[in-house]
Amino acid sequence: MTLPLFFNIFNLYIRKGGIVALTGAHYEGGADLVYTFIPSLSTVDKLYGIVLIALAVFAIIVRFQLAQFKKTGPKFYLLLLLISGIASLIYLIAAGAIVSDFGIEIEYSSQISQLIVSAALLVANYIYFQKRSNLFVN
Fold first, then answer.
1. pTM (predicted TM-score)
2. How far from 82 is each of 4, 41, 86, 121, 132, CA to CA, in Å?
3. What is the CA radius of gyration of the chain?
4. DSSP secondary structure letter of residue 38
5. Which of 48, 50, 110, 121 gives the lowest tally of CB atoms within 10 Å of its CB?
């Protein structure tokens, strides 16, 4: 496996996702304060962090499936994209519901546009792998 791919998997799923969610680093130093007033948000963040780290492990498995042209490779890749999008959506809904109980409004536009792009990526990759299904026979 190439170093840039390992870095991308580590960077996206673990460093920018899992560890940030587990530690509350996305609150920019205010995690203790946020979790003091909204303790249930800590649980949601930690669960999401664990899911992202599990997705990192799955991403490595998927990478090897694709590199070896395994028949399950494209299906696993599409499943990775789907689970990642669903996990983001569930996190967004759960966190939004929790903070709305405290009168805090969340701006959803960037998250929604990110989910739309993810859905488009899923469709594009489905079409891509359908056209190349004859390559994945191992």
1. 0.82
2. 23, 24, 6, 10, 20
3. 17
4. -
5. 110
Nearest to 88 by CA among 113, 63, 105: 113
In tens, the pLDDT along 80-123 reads 989 988 998 899 899 999 988 888 877 777 778 888 888 998 89
Tens digits of residue pLDDT in 48-75? 999 988 988 898 888 889 889 999 999 9
Asked whether the beta carbons of 95 and 34 are under 8 A apart, the reply is no
Using CA atoms, how far apart are residues 112 and 92, in angstroms rounded to an integer?
Answer: 9
Taken as a whole, the chain contains a residue count of 138
Phi-psi label, residue 106: left if phi above 0, alpha if psi -120 to 50, beta otherwise:
beta
